[in-house]
Design a protein that fits this description.
By secondary structure, the chain is mostly helical. It is built from seven helices and no strands.
């Protein structure tokens, strides 16, 4: 309990029962959404403080793994609920937004904040190389399925098993064109 109200944002926890009450009373969905969004803010902070507290007991390696796993709990919950509801486009948008947010927003904000304090910033070459490799992997993981779907729509073929070798070569050709542009 002593860690509960350490930040002023923790007072937004009042929106948890407000959200439940609004949902039970079948209030306007926009009102429920805004209330739930305000309730998630302190919950994310509590989750971060909990993983930091666990890190002191289990070590830095396991603590970092817990922080990385639990830090994406909101995206995981949204994806599971949306998959259950059959809204696959929401899952795609959520994952894409999460990737872009983590890559662009967090990296850009940290570089901006570092530039405000230090005239010249230094980076760990190994970590920067790993980040660049992960960015490339994420980009390829998003581009290949989209390119395949685009090509299947264009050729009116919707299953991979029926694709001829010529179609696969066309996909590879299109991918090479996209990467060179």
């Amino acid at each position: 309990m002593r860690y509960l109200f350490t930040a002023w944002l923790d007072f937004l926890l009042i929106f948890i029962p407000v959200t439940v009450a609004l949902e039970v009373l079948r209030a306007d969905p926009l009102l429920v959404f805004v209330s739930a969004g305000l309730a998630i803010i302190p919950l994310a902070g509590l989750l971060g403080r909990a993983t930091e507290h666990l890190t002191t007991h289990v070590g830095a390696g396991i603590g970092a793994l817990l922080n990385a796993s639990l830090g994406n709990a909101a995206e995981l919950i949204i994806a599971l609920v949306a998959l259950r509801a059959g809204v696959h486009d929401v899952v795609k948008a959520s994952l894409t937004g999460s990737i872009l947010g983590n890559i662009l927003l967090v990296l850009g904000a940290s570089m901006f904040a570092g530039g405000m304090k230090y005239e010249r910033q230094k980076f760990n070459q190994t970590a920067a190389g790993m980040g660049a490799s992960l960015l490339l992997l994420a980009a390829v993981g998003l581009i290949i399925p989209a390119l395949f779907q685009f090509h299947c729509r264009r050729s009116r073929r919707h299953d991979l098993a029926a694709a001829e070798p010529h179609n696969i070569m066309c996909i590879i050709r299109d991918l090479c064109r996209q990467l060179t542009v």
